[in-house]
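HUMAN: Forgive my ignorance: could you write out one protein's sequence and backbone structure tokens?

ASSISTANT:
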Amino acid sequence: MSITRAEALDRTAQHIGEFGFFFDFDGTLSPIQGDPATVPLASGVREAIARLAAVARRVVIVSARPVAFLCQRFGGLPLTLSGMYGLELGTPDGRLVTDPAAERWIPAVDEVTAAARQELAPRGVLVEPKRLSVALHYRTAPQLAGPVEEWARRRAEQTGLRVQPGRMVLELRPPIESDKGTALRPLLSDLSGAWYVGDDVADLRAFDVLAEREREVVGFVAIRAAVTNGSPVDGLADAADFTVAGPDEVGELISAVAARRAPR
């Protein structure tokens, strides 16, 4: 059953120390821009996240980004960083754990990255290497959507990598059953409730897992917020309890949640 933003805040305030808060990164905590390597956090987000981490059981960034990238934005905060759809996990004490099954695909990723730099980058596609995957961004060249999709499909067939779609980006990654849902599931076991805030099609799997947890565990509170960024992806807003306009408003929402209880 969907609940309003005000109801979500009220229900969370009662037991915030037993809640987890999970956030996508791009388009949720940061604006979407042409160069993904230099994207900043939205105004006030880091400070709001720090306040939330002081009162919540767990705060997690769940992203397709590598943990190393997330550390550059959130270093020094007691967060869990789930990178590469859970193939990497950065713990609050600074350890990095990588799925060993993913590491053996690094040579294939390197091969595809080199080919993309040679064949796609000169045409205007931004090639973003991520160690365990490579992302092909065509936001600045939307007319290349079809050719990039065909190129990625052929490379996936040749190498065994999997194509992961996103907002004007395709990612070639190991063919391992990992997504934002599988990344979320093991981090829910000790929580009485959880929020997930995201803006892209990959975040639907996290919404699904929260719904499953709510059905399986009596009393578990699941709260799903969709960030629209002016044009919500198909199905995301419908699956959410409520919507948020953009990353600046997400920062305000986080501050509102954190303000419901004094630090532990």
Q: What stands out?
A: Residues 102-173 form a domain with the Alpha-Beta Plaits fold (CATH 3.30.70.1020). The first strand starts at residue 19 and ends at 23. The CA atoms of residues 197 and 225 lie 5 Å apart.
